[in-house]
Amino acid sequence: MLLGIETSCDETAAAVVLNGRKVLSSKLFSQIQVHQEFGGVVPEVAARKHVEILNSIVEEALSEAGVKPSDLSGIVCTAGPGLIGTLLVGLAAAKAYAWAWERPFIAVDHLLSHVCANYIDTDLEPPFVALLVSGGHTQLLHFENHRTSKILGQTLDDAAGEAFDKVGRLLGLEYPGGPVIDRLAQVGNAKAYAFPEGVVDGYDFSFSGLKTAVLRAVEKSMAPLPVADLAASFQAAVVRVLVKKTLKAAQELDVPRIVLAGGVAANRQLREELSRQSSVPVYIPQLRYCTDNAAMVAAAGFYFNDASPYEVNAYSRQKHPKTLARKSKAAPTQR
């Protein structure tokens, strides 16, 4: 079993997971209320809060799982991408635990961890196409096996989650904007505004034009602002293009299943439309494993289980998992 630690942004989390599938414990402290007054995450504030809370979160995770450090086969931690300051807190702690408890240290990629959330409590096996949609990234990936993936396409500007938050601010909604827009869209008229989908060749995405279109609509609207209709129309445009390109990739690559991952995977319309329109099974994480959490990190550690050198540093942009591992047989064998 593996202990996972996640501090890539504003969630302090620790979890114990067995065989990459069974969650024995998953503890999380959210900093949303801390950052709401700023309208977004303040990296320095987030890092200090991680320092304050992480050790107690790890202790709670071990206690709830009923395990001792000697029962663990490794300590897994997010190395990036994310906020450098917050990542360093988790990395330093994970290395310290690994050294003190004489357990292997395993650094994993945050984005691949989101995909691995789909292994939890399911029978998912590759190959599959994964739609990864979060606050910082939007990607379509093809997984040939557990450890080999290829990026088919990605956003050329704003990520889908970033667009949700920015539009939320345009509409005067509280941070984070994504969940609020999702709620408003349930009562709004999605056909009130014909927002563009951001047409881009291939499997890439673009959401900056859509965001600008919402801004123009807000500027032209008379008071009171039709917030629910704007939210519904915006969300419908995002979901249409995400679903369309994912289904196209799955069909052209002839994969037997589709995976949805990332914080935006919690969006109800996206979950429903992708499942409804797909001709192959769609795997979607439980809501608590869509946003940042440590269970997905531990799951990733099981599948990308090469021991990492202590020299591994935090990074803000995605790296290939092979760069996080040392060329040795130091990976844990007991799981």
Number of helices: 10
DSSP strand count: 10
Instruction: Predict the CATH topology of the largest domain.
Output: Nucleotidyltransferase, domain 5
Percentage of residues in DSSP E strands:
15-25%
Alpha-beta content class: alpha/beta
Strand arrangement in the largest pleated sheet: 3-2-1-4-5
Unreliable runs, pLDDT <50, ≥5 residues? 327-335
Mean pLDDT: 93
Order of helices and strands: EEEHHEHEHEEEHHHHEHEH
Count of spatially separate domains:
2
In CATH, what is the class of the largest domain? Alpha Beta
Tell me the major beta sheet: 5 strands, mixed
Q: How far apart lie the N and C ends? A: 5 Å
What's the structural blueprint in terms of helices and strands?
Elements: E1 2-6, E2 11-18, E3 22-30, H1 32-36, H2 43-65, E4 74-80, H3 84-101, E5 105-109, H4 110-116, E6 128-133, E7 138-143, E8 149-154, H5 160-170, H6 177-185, H7 208-220, H8 227-253, E9 258-261, H9 268-277, E10 282-283, H10 295-303
Parallel strand pairs: 1-4, 4-5, 6-9, 9-10
Antiparallel strand pairs: 1-2, 2-3, 6-7, 7-8
Helix pairs in contact: 2-3, 4-10, 5-6, 5-7, 5-8, 6-8, 7-8, 8-9
Task: Describe the structure in your own words.
The protein has 335 residues and is α/β, with parallel strands linked by helices. It has 2 domains: 2-116 and 290-324, ATPase, nucleotide binding domain (Nucleotidyltransferase, domain 5, 2-Layer Sandwich), CATH 3.30.420; 126-285, Nucleotidyltransferase, domain 5 (2-Layer Sandwich). It has helices spanning 32-36, 43-65, 84-101, 110-116, 160-170, 177-185, 208-220, 227-253, 268-277, 295-303; strands spanning 2-6, 11-18, 22-30, 74-80, 105-109, 128-133, 138-143, 149-154, 258-261, 282-283. The strands form 2 sheets. A 5-stranded mixed β-sheet has the order 3-2-1-4-5, with helices on both faces.
